[in-house]
Predict the structure.
Amino acid sequence: MITKHIDYQDGDAVLEGYLAYNETDKQQPAVLVAHDWSGRRDFACKAAERVAAMGYVGFALDMYGKGVFGADGDVEGNGALMSPYATDRALLRQRVNAALQAVRRLPQVDSSKIAAMGYCFGGLCVLELARSGADVQGVISIHGIFAPGNVTNEQITAKVLCLHGHDDPMVPPDQVLAFETEMTQAGVDWQIHVYGDTMHAFTNPVANNPDFGTVYKAVAANRAYQSVVNFLDEIFKE
């Protein structure tokens, strides 16, 4: 497996992605990996490597800017990093689409076969990528945020998979229902897999804050990753 850091830009902002792929003579499908609210740290990079192990190009994108990172457990600091994008969905869409365009230009990538997956805040990012009308085959939100912003959606062409913990306090059942309604009214090919007795951040082994609602759960994580494999296999082989 080859891994490297790749600089790219959104306007004047310099961003740093993490690329993982297996060397081959053929261009491969690519999966953008959008990080949680702490930035493009080791968890997102390992996720890109997981994608590469599936036989695709993994690209952990950067929402905050080169060298800008939060920290585990820093609720206030991570919230401050995420807030400008969570509140300004036009800005968020512009930033995540910059990553998509950077990946399209990579020589390793089959630009006709691109998907995106994201964790927590990153789940929101990939859902907004779909809402922006981006030409991607599918998006996967993993314990992501569902609530829409105040910008108009374009026609959603991507298939949508959401992997969600039923006891996630950040996305209560009424928001799940609202999202289902939104996707149905938009004519989207959507799925939501809901895991019982499961909180937010259930795929992250360092998540252990039940008072905040973030708790790792291995069985839910394993089920979620099997769904990721199945979904990517479906959309890339059509």
Observations:
- The CA atoms of residues 142 and 161 lie 9 Å apart.
- The radius of gyration is 16 Å.
- The mean pLDDT is 97.
